[in-house]
Structures are given as C-alpha cells and as structure tokens.
Amino acid sequence: MTSVAALLVRPFRPEDQAEARAVLAASWRERFGDEYDEAEDHDLDDVSVPFASGLLLVATLDGQIVGTGGLIVRDDEAAEVRRMSTKREYRRRGVASAILRRLLDEARTRGCRRVVLGTEAAWDDAVSLYHAHGFREIARPDSSVWFELLP
Description:
It is a single chain. The chain has one domain (4-111): 3-Layer(aba) Sandwich (Aminopeptidase). 26% of the residues lie in helices and 31% in strands. It is built from three helices and seven strands; from the N terminus they run E-H-E-E-E-H-E-H-E-E. The chain has helices at 17-32, 95-109, 124-132; strands at 8-11, 55-61, 64-73, 78-86, 114-120, 136-139, 144-149.
C-alpha cells in the first residue's frame, strides 16, 4: 500500500465527481447499512454544490481519491465542516487530519471565527479525530454530537 506521505490534498474538480461520490456513498453505507439508500441521497448528484460558498477537498494517493471533506462558509464569522469521509482501508493513517487541517486553514484565511461540525456520537473514530484537533462538544441532540472550534 502506498505511503500516506505521498498524499495530495487538493480542491475538488468536476472530473472527481464519480470517484468522490463513490467514497462518500461507501462510507455512508458502511455506517448506516441497509438504512442508507444512495438513490435517495440527492446531495451526491453533484457533491460540490453545497460548497459553492466554501471549499471541497479531495485527498488522493496515486491518483485515486481516498478522502473528502468540505467547508461551507455560513456568514462572515462562521463556517461548517461537512462530508468528511475516508476510504475504510486508509483510515487512521492521517488522511482525515490532512483534509481537516487544510479546511481549518481556509476558514482562518476567510476570517471565520467559529467552525462547527456534526457527526454521529457512536462514530468513535470521528469523535476522536475532532477532539484531537481541538474541537469541543457543544451539543448532543439525539444520536449526534456537534462540535465547535474557535480557530
């Protein structure tokens, strides 16, 4: 397997659509099983649309997309991280951290004073990732957990 040292994190390009969609859908299928219906997930029709006000990144190894993550700028002071996903075989190897660092740099560059994100509380790996990057929990509605970082 290729070293993560060769990881390239770059902005999403239109030609990334099919591969980025596959990474995101596989992650959701893994997490939600039969409850997840990719055909009903219209956000995947063009994964870049929600990020028009921000930035969607892909992480590649040997030209293959192994992770995604995006930043949506909500207003002059706040942004939200969304669609963080890493292919199963590349998890816990620094892919998500590399994407998240770039997104946080982008938020700072844009003058955002607050970055929020949500995930499922049962996803221990995601919760640990966000804690490791300085996010603090701000809410636990239902089965989810919301985080905040003041970059």
